């Protein structure tokens, strides 16, 4: 676990400020000069992005719309048949992922804040994208966070298919802290299910009385970034702390990551949370941020467009409006460089495209899809 000094990117603010939101903006980093190209700025709080086989993008908007975006920035009409969402506060339509066999099955997965008796919770549905691409067919909810609770905060939620075909789902604590350490409840957990929502028999709590068998790891606050490490296949996550204490973790089966018993942050009032920063039986983060950057989105870069960034992790930041580049040495962060400072956008999602470029979603009522391109 570490929190290390950061190397700040050298941004070109005068150029960025002089251009319109639709014009490319140029930035300098330690290793690459690059431009940020806005493909569209006509999305309402976009949240999740997944690439179709032909390079177009499925993108969610938090109020409850799913669209297809072209590489030229054109947006389809909203796709019919998405689930009803509770678009309150941080809730709504959240992440999107393609089934590993999408080319044959045309199945997509959506996470969303689902309304119901007692409030709302993070749910996941799957459906078939019709050949016409204008509707979803056969929608089926495969996971529901229970119990549902009141409030519009801390839903998580990212969807990641593991190499074995199982699906990881990240959830938030829904601001119900006592539920997070309670294995009979699904708040503040990483969940692992089969593609149809059934339980893998090797999940860590399958045979524990009183524990939900979906749980993979627990003790998390609000996980809004998740990705598989390209070499190991291990799940990595980022989660929001309170005031300080944002974390990067690689959650292992059955492990307890401490919230709200241990944390590197304090409450928004300044009051201490839990017992401090360490407790026996609870895991330490790989890396933490204090002050909080409000992380959302996580990606490991494996492409060839930015060769000097290969193997680095990238984390979007809402609060500090930046993109953090993390240089890794195993499960250790050796260096952090902060990119896009001065860009003035809350970064919600970070995705590597099949073309090797880096794509971002910005969190705003005129939210953008942005493509990062190297300048030789």
List keywords for this structure.
globular; 376 residues; mainly beta; 3 helices
General description of the model:
4% of the residues lie in helices and 39% in strands. It is mainly beta and 376 residues long. The strands form six sheets. The chain has a five-stranded mixed β-sheet with strand order 1-22-21-20-19, with no helix packed on it. A hairpin with a 4-residue loop joins strand 21 and strand 22 (333-339). The longest helix is centred in the N-terminal third of the chain and has 6 residues, at 13-18.
Q: What is the topological layout?
A:
Elements: E1 6-8, H1 13-18, E2 25-28, E3 33-43, E4 46-51, E5 57-61, E6 65-69, E7 93-98, H2 102-105, E8 107-116, E9 119-129, E10 136-144, E11 159-161, E12 167-170, H3 177-180, E13 189-193, E14 215-218, E15 223-228, E16 235-239, E17 246-249, E18 287-289, E19 295-300, E20 313-317, E21 322-328, E22 333-339, E23 347-352, E24 358-362, E25 367-374
Parallel strand pairs: 1-22
Antiparallel strand pairs: 2-3, 3-25, 4-5, 5-6, 7-8, 8-9, 9-10, 11-12, 12-13, 13-14, 15-16, 16-17, 17-18, 19-20, 20-21, 21-22, 23-24, 24-25
pLDDT averaged over residues: 94
Helix segment count? 3
N-to-C CA distance: 36 Å
Q: What is the SS-derived class?
A: mainly beta
- Using only C-alpha atoms, the radius of gyration works out to 20 Å
| Shape assignment | globular
| pLDDT < 50 stretches | 5-21
Widest sheet, order of strands:
1-22-21-20-19
Major sheet attributes = 5 strands, mixed
SSE string, helix = H, strand = E?
EHEEEEEEHEEEEEHEEEEEEEEEEEEE
Number of strands: 25
Helix content: under 10%
């Amino acid at each position: 676990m570490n929190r290390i000094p950061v190397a700040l990117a050298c941004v070109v603010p005068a150029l960025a400020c002089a251009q319109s939101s639709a014009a490319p903006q140029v930035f300098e980093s330690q290793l690459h000069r690059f431009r940020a190209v806005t493909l569209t700025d006509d999305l309402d709080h976009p949240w999740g992005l997944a690439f179709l086989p032909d390079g177009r993008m499925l993108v969610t908007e938090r109020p409850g719309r799913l669209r297809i975006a072209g590489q030229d920035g054109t947006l389809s009409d909203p796709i019919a048949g998405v689930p009803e969402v509770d678009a309150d506060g941080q809730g709504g339509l959240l992440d999107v992922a393609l089934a590993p066999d999408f080319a044959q099955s045309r199945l997509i997965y959506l996470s969303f804040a689902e309304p119901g008796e007692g409030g709302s919770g993070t749910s996941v549905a799957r459906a078939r994208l019709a050949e016409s691409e204008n509707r979803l067919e056969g929608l089926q909810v495969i996971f529901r966070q229970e119990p549902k609770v009141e409030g519009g905060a801390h839903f998580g939620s990212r969807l990641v298919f593991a190499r074995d075909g199982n699906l990881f789902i990240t959830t938030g604590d829904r601001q119900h802290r006592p539920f997070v350490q309670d294995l009979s409840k699904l708040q503040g957990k990483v969940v692992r299910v089969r593609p149809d929502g059934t339980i893998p028999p090797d999940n860590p709590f399958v045979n524990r009385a009183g524990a939900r068998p979906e749980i993979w790891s627990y003790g998390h606050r609000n996980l809004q970034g998740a990705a598989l490490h390209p070499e190991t296949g291990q799940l990595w996550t980022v989660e929001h702390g309170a005031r300080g204490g944002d974390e990067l973790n690689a959650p292992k089966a059955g492990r307890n990551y401490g919230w709200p018993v241990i944390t590197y942050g304090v409450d928004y009032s300044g009051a201490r949370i839990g017992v401090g920063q360490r407790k026996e039986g609870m895991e330490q983060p790989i890396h933490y941020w204090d002050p909080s950057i409000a992380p959302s989105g996580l990606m490991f870069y494996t492409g060839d467009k930015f060769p000097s960034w290969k193997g680095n992790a990238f984390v979007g930041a809402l609060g500090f409006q930046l993109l953090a580049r993390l240089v890794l040495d195993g499960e250790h962060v050796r260096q952090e460089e902060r990119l896009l400072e001065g860009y003035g956008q809350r970064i919600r999602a970070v995705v590597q495209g099949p073309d090797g470029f880096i794509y971002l979603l910005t969190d705003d009522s005129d939210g953008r899809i942005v493509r990062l391109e190297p300048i030789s």
